[in-house]
Amino acid sequence: MPRYDLAFSLGYDCNASLALRRAGLQFCSYPFDWLTRATLAARADLLARRFEGWLASPDGLDDLGPVPFERFAPRHRVVVDRASGLEFRHDFPLALPVADALPEVAAKHRRRADRLLGAIGRADRVLAVFAVGFRHPDLAMDELVAARRVLAVAFGEKIEVLGLADDAPGGADRPPAAEEAEGGRVRRVSLRCLSETPQGIEVSDRALAEFLRAQIEVPDPRTPEEVRAHRDLVRRREYAKYAARTRLGMFWNKLQYRRWRALSKALQRKGIIPPNEPGAPR
Q1: How does the average pLDDT of the chain come out, rounded?
Q2: Quick check: 166 and 137 in contact, CB under 8 A?
Q3: Count of Cβ atoms closer than 10 Å to residue 157 Cβ
Q4: C-alpha to C-alpha distance for 209 and 129, rounded to whole angstroms
Q5: What Å distances lie between residue 53 and 32, 36, 42, 84, 238, CA to CA?
Q6: b/e code 206-219 from CB counts within 10 Å (16+ = b)
Q7: Which residues, at least 6 apart from 203, have a Cβ–Cβ distance to it below 8 Å?
Q8: Can you give the residue range of the structural domain that contains 50?
Q9: Which residues contact 5 (CB under 8 A, 6 or more apart)?
Q10: Fewest CB within 10 A of the end CB: N or C in the chain?
Q11: 88-122 pLDDT, tens per residue?
Q12: Are residues 31 and 148 in the same domain?
């Protein structure tokens, strides 16, 4: 089983990052985790330029209005960065104008960008994962090869690219079909991960995670204290999010949320999780 020092998501949307996290292969938040819409070529170019000038001014952003399918009432607005084509759906609050929200959003993504660039610099072998999305159901090998070449110029031969698609013939029980290029540094795998729903195409990050878990290995860089702290945070967050069914349950959730926030602040002061990201891995 190939072993990498670092695995991270290049997109197309949140499914690649969710799959890596479910598989126990990604331990930090990175810039492309929750963004969508941009091409693979644009993402590779932005990373190769080390995110220079990204989110520098509100003049380069288009406000498309409220996110149309959030779980409850819309809380964020859809914002597109014209230069890269990246679309933000979880960053810009609906209650604030884009220009007012941009400094905090830019600072958050600068932290994530620096975190990714630092991790790539320290690693000897790096895997960038790109998976099809609900608005990106096709994935050509040429796209993967071109992206890898751009990244190799910037970061060296340590960079490898894995593309996950769903276009091989056969039924649901078919085994994954793989092809390679660039001396094995680019792999394209087709496996069953797409399904039609009333809302359109959906991607199963669980299917992607199951495949990734069986194919690659990435050591966890966190200390046991950090692992326990993050597990506790996730457990409290999930409870507070889903457990309320009665007034008593709502009261208990509020209590749990306050305890969760207190724990988050304590871990931030110790440097175990970064500022302003209480629910995210370090």
Answers
A1: 85
A2: yes
A3: 11
A4: 12
A5: 16, 19, 14, 11, 36
A6: ebbbbbbbebbebe
A7: 13, 15, 131, 132, 133, 134, 193, 194
A8: 6-215
A9: 122, 123, 124, 125, 126, 218, 219
A10: N
A11: 998 999 999 999 999 999 999 999 999 999 999 99
A12: yes
Helix axis angle, 205-215 relative to 14-22, nearest 10°?
Answer: 50
pLDDT bin (cut points 50, 70, 90) of residue 282 is: very low
Q: What is the pTM of this model?
A: 0.81
Tokens of 116: 């990714």
Comparing 177 with 52, the larger pLDDT belongs to 52
Which residue has 């340590």 as its token pair?
158
185 and 261 in a single domain? The answer is: no
Residue 276 lies in a domain: no
Are 167 and 232 members of one domain? no
Cβ contact 159:185 at 8 Å:
yes
Total tally of structural domains belonging to the chain: 2
Percent of the chain at pLDDT > 70 equals: 82
